[in-house]
UniProtKB/TrEMBL annotation:
Protein name as annotated: Salivary secreted peptide
Pfam families recorded: MBF2
Top-rank taxon: Eukaryota
Signal sequence annotation: 1-30
Xref: InterPro entries: MBF2
Organism of this sequence: Lygus lineolaris (Tarnished plant bug)
The keyword Lipid biosynthesis is annotated on this UniProt entry: no
Keywords: Signal
Amino acid sequence: MAMERVAVAVTSGLLLAVLLATFAPSPALAIDCGRNKSHNAFIGSRHWDDKLLFMDHPKKESKWLRTVSADVATGNLRGIINYIEVLDQKTNGNGGCAYLTSGGAGTNNVAFHIKSQRSHGLDFIIRAWGRPY
């Protein structure tokens, strides 16, 4: 009887782990427009000896009944990116969305397309940390 309980617990735990791995969003897609108040994203993992390789603060004013967008690209950095954070400065639910278009963690560049919600501007801080060459 005890072995059956252990088998059921292990099977249930494995099933839960598979479901979470399948349906959990990847870090690059963690920005969920329309559901979260802040559309932040964190990609990769930061190490203790990482240096700030890139920082940008794209900001655009709103246009009535229109969306505004911006493209942010690092170009070739002199290092390998380990961690990227995209911080939406509009934390009231009116912020925009950032879409990873190229590069990312493990490369020497990253590019994002940022788009606002209709009739709202955008205000993000993008930082990339890594190990310089």
